[in-house]
Every structure is written in structure tokens, then in C-alpha cells.
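Hi both,

Apologies for the delay on this - the queue was longer than expected. I finally got the pyridoxal-5'-phosphate-bound model through. Below you'll find the protein sequence and the ligand SMILES exactly as submitted, and right after that the C-alpha cells for the full complex including the ligand.
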Amino acid sequence: MEFIDLKIQFSKIENKIKESIHNVLNHGQYIMGPEVKKLEYELSRYVDAKYCVSCSSGTDALLMSLLAIGIKPGDAVITTPFTFVATAEVITLLGATPIFVDIDSKTFNINPDLIEEIILDVKKNTNLDIKAIIPVNIFGLSADYNKISGIVTKYNIRIIEDAAQSFGAKYYKEKSGSLSELSCTSFF
Ligand SMILES: Cc1ncc(COP(=O)(O)O)c(C=O)c1O
């Protein structure tokens, strides 16, 4: 038996999937069709977020979020080194500098206790302007957002949740996908 058996999943909802695909073929709106609005509505309702904007991938979602807050060369974005490459890749794509904060050995997520020390070090030793932090909820386990926001808000650092691996997860009573001002997920 396979660890993730997509064929079994498919067999359970085969008719629904085929019907939906045929609906799209019939109405012919391949771009921005009614399914897009429906998906965005359902996703935002599920995670209890005010808005949802769909795009081609989790990578683009992260890139769009960084663009939305105006990340540019000379800026720095804190993140974790233990993630899929896309998290750091999008930072460099905009000419900004990723600053890696080590992980907690129990959760494998960014260690909040190390963040402030790194912020102070970057401020003292570089000309970089730290604008954002991207915590990643690795393997479905949420990073510690209360602790993280307690530290970074006093430095005007904005939080972008990388929820690519944590759709359906919870942090206390809140759903991953709504744990920060901007949250990104993926259907990879
Ligand atoms: C933590 C994390 N961030 C971002 C991404 C990027 O998502 P996508 O593959 O949809 O571009 C992934 C994909 O696996 C991921 O695991």
C-alpha cells in the first residue's frame, strides 16, 4: 500500500470530479471561471479569512505577498532554513536578503527564542531593513505565532504565514491560513 494513495482518494469521489471537469468543458471559461470564485469563497470560509486570492502555486502566493508589502533590494526577510526552497527563493527573487533563524529541535519550526537576537545583530552589523518574517508550519505543525508576533511587532516586522504544508491545521482555536496578516498555502 502506498503512503499517499491518490488512486483510492480518486475512486471515492470519481463521479464528482468527472462531473466538475465536464462542467468546465461545457461552459468553456478556462480562466477566471465561476469555479475560481467558488474555490476562493470556500477557502476563505474554511480558514475564516476575510479574503482569498487564488494563483498558480504556493510559490507565487509567497511572491505576491512579498510584492504586496513592497519588499525590494536592501530589505531583509527572516525565515527558517528548514523548509521547501520556495520560502527563501521568493525573497531572493525580489533582490531582498533572507535571514535564517534556526529551528526548535522539538517542533522543527523557527525557534522564536532566537529571533530577537538575530534582529538586533542584523541591525547592528548591516544596512539591511528587516521588513517581514515568514514562519513556516512544517509537516502540518503550526509555528508559535503568539510568541513570534510578540517579538516582531515592536520592530515593525510584518508576518507572512507559509501554510503550504499546514492546510487544515489549527493553532489554538484558529485555522492555519489565517494566522497572520497574509497567509499562503499550496495544493502541491
Ligand atoms: C513550506 C512550503 N512553502 C512553499 C511551497 C511552495 O508551494 P508550490 O509547490 O505550490 O509552489 C511548498 C511546496 O511544497 C512548501 O512545502
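Main takeaway for now: The chain has a mean pLDDT of 97.

I'll put the files on the shared drive as well.

H.
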